[in-house]
Design a protein that fits this description.
Layout lengths: L1 E3 L13 H10 L2 E7 L6 H10 L3 E5 L13 H11 L6 E10 L7 H18 L3 E6 L2 H11 L4 E4 L5 H9 L2 E5 L9 H9 L5 E3 L21 H12 L3 H15 L12
Parallel strand pairs: 1-2, 2-3, 3-4, 4-5, 5-6, 6-7, 7-8
Helix pairs in contact: 3-4, 8-9
Amino acid sequence: MLVDTHCHLDAAEFDGDRDRVIAAMRSAGVVAAVVPAVERGNFDAVRGLAHAHPGVGYALGIHPMYVDRARDDDLGCLKQALDASRGDPLLLAVGEIGLDFFVEGLDRQRQERFLDAQLAMARELGLPVILHVRRSQDMVLKHLRRHRPGGGIAHAFNGSLQQARAFLDLGFSLGFGGAMTFERSLRIRSLVRELPDEAHVLETDSPDISPAWLHPRRNEPAELARIAGVFAQLRGVTPAEAITQTADNAARVLPRLAGLLPALA
């Protein structure tokens, strides 16, 4: 069963046809989707989506690219939101959190302070984390080793093989999606081929990171079926084997996700 471990269904890009997008997702065989928050202003939106649509789970967190416009008390609001939802089976993780050293002008020290605080929350609540690690893998690893949260997913992974193994050693799986479908994405495609079975989960990051056949148009969770086909080809396995393995991995690193997958529950 296909699991989209990272999609932003609450994004404004879907405001005009969100119900159709979700229906298309189901028609494509995607039985579960994880919708992470990016800032205080969409905590209610991702929670509401999850409760309105079977098979959708959510995560709460403050994205590193939104840290500069966040207020300091947003961390307190996040803690309150997590505490209020700690018994909600649809709350799957703390996320999307992490570091972004690709976008120029972002305050790195502020990003690290927000990451530290959110990792501490995840550890306290016993929740996994969904990580943004763009050009920042080693520094994120440093913070993970300090806080030791309960695993999770390094989303849109594009680090080295050595960095990948370091995340695996800490109990993480790595997210692969549309970028993998471009033949020029040599590093990502090499990671797909070389890492062990337990390393990978599939994602779309909709509406972003469109696959090669869709770029530069809007991405959707329904594209995960074709993305899984590319993944299977790179791995040298059947699509069914790829889908089963990545769903198993997703349920392992996001334990509450199993409740959204009847065959794995």
